[in-house]
Specification:
Layout: H1 8-27, E1 37-41, E2 47-50, E3 66-69, E4 74-76, H2 85-94, E5 100-104, H3 107-115, H4 124-130, H5 148-160, E6 163-166, E7 170-175, H6 178-201, H7 209-222
Antiparallel strand pairs: 1-2, 1-5, 2-3, 3-4, 5-7, 6-7
Helix pairs in contact: 1-6, 2-5, 3-6, 4-6, 4-7
The structure holds zinc ion.
Length: about 230
């Protein structure tokens, strides 16, 4: 259990970010009771800060967080890490830009996960942010899986889209930054809600590839602030 070589200030900042994401997910109603997991990679290192197992996200403080290596071995912290640690470290290991990974049971998105149905791309927000459907992970058994084929299947889905559905379980998202991962988790729930209601009330039309390309281009060139 050694933290040799790790910058304390950097670790502190990563821990602040893990707490911020955890609390915001709780406030948004995307994680409840002891469910949900947040992990953030220590920049430039093969270590990840992750939330402990069985803790309410709104009550976690820094001393409850753990540092694990990319094999999931605890290098710092006295608690047991999340039971989803194998999934989280596997994602950090295999998707370079996945600096922050969050797992939720966000209710509306979980409806699609239960039915093993992709969230159809029927809202511009989804086309804009995710570039298409939110896919269901193809090979998946149960929460806490460490089965390598299933972990590879999760990574395959997350390489296609920064959010994916874990069958009969919940949602997994990632982002280059904690803000991006958080936005992805929040927006997935919003678009799942809109999709469910639009499917109940009528027959929503999915965005075509061309329309998605247009919206992605719009995002790149016309949205937000650009440096002058
Ligand atoms: Zn879960």
């Amino acid at each position: 259990m050694s933290l040799k070589g790790l910058d304390k200030k950097v670790i502190n900042k990563v821990m602040d970010d893990v707490l911020y994401v955890s609390r915001t997910l709780f406030e948004e109603g995307l994680v409840k009771c002891t469910f949900g997991v947040v992990s953030i990679r220590v920049p430039g290192e093969d270590y990840v800060v992750i939330t402990p197992s069985g803790f309410k996200k709104e009550k976690i403080v820094k001393r409850n967080l753990l540092i694990v290596d990319l094999d999931g071995k605890v290098v710092s912290g006295g608690l047991r890490p999340s039971s989803e640690t194998p999934m989280h470290v596997f994602i950090h290991k295999n998707i370079k830009e996945a600096n922050c990974v969050a797992h939720t049971h966000s209710p509306m998105a979980t409806v699609f996960a239960i039915l093993r149905r992709d969230i159809p791309c029927v809202a511009s927000e989804q086309a804009f942010m995710f570039g298409g459907r939110i896919p269901v992970v193809k090979k998946y058994s149960y929460p806490g899986t460490s089965n390598i084929e299933e972990l590879e299947s999760i990574v395959d889905a997350l390489k296609m889209c920064k959010a994916a559905l874990l069958p009969r379980h919940g949602v997994i998202v990632h982002g280059e930054t904690s803000e991006e991962a958080l936005d992805n988790a929040i927006v997935v729930e919003d678009i799942a809600t809109s999709a469910i209601f639009s499917l109940l009330l009528g027959q929503p039309q999915e965005f075509s590839k061309e329309e998605i390309t247009y919206l992605q281009e719009y995002k790149k060139t016309r949205y937000g602030q650009t440096k002058k």
